[in-house]
Design goal:
Distance between the termini: 104 Å
Number of domains: 1
Number of helices: 2
Oligomer: single chain
Strand order of the largest sheet: 2-1-7-3-4
Shape: elongated
CATH superfamily: Phosphatidylinositol 3-kinase Catalytic Subunit, Chain A, domain 1
Radius of gyration: 32 Å
Strand content: 25-35%
CATH class: Alpha Beta
């Protein structure tokens, strides 16, 4: 049976509960355990010499330059192990002052990679892989 609430005087600032026992504590809510989100998948068309391969790169946020090199080495095992001997190249659009668009090929540096959009309008960007040879390697290859 509930006790009636006592009427407070003007000077009394204390709030009284209807019963002397403390209010019941809330039931602890356990959050359901969900599996972590799957890694983001990025499709890139890699091209080395005359072979073009569509590669799916699993990454947490965005595909880094190193992720692309790792995927390229998995697909093309003959690539050199030294990153300095590998260049990535893609097509870009250059806008000039007169609002004309020129398509051109450009090398991609590791610093410029984050600004490069890999997918645009449902299309996938093609990245061409080139290997740098020393002058002596080119000289010897010319005589083979």
């Amino acid at each position: 049976m509930m006790e009636p609430i006592q009427e407070l005087s003007e000077c009394d600032r204390t709030v009284y509960c209807p019963s002397p026992s403390p209010p019941p504590s809330p039931i602890p809510y356990t959050y359901p355990i969900f599996p972590p989100p799957p890694p983001r998948q990025v499709l890139i068309a890699l091209r080395y010499k005359r072979v073009r391969v569509l590669v799916n790169i699993d990454c947490k946020w965005e595909a880094t330059y190193e992720d692309v090199l790792k995927a390229a080495r998995a697909v093309f095992p003959k690539l050199p192990a030294d990153n300095n001997k590998i260049c990535l190249e893609t097509s870009i659009d250059i806008f000039d002052c007169d609002h004309y668009v020129t398509a051109a090929r450009a090398y991609i540096t590791p610093e410029a990679w984050p600004a490069l959009s890999l997918q645009f309008g449902g299309a996938t960007r093609e990245v061409e892989i080139r290997t740098r040879q020393s002058k002596w390697e080119r000289f010897i290859a010319a005589f083979k």
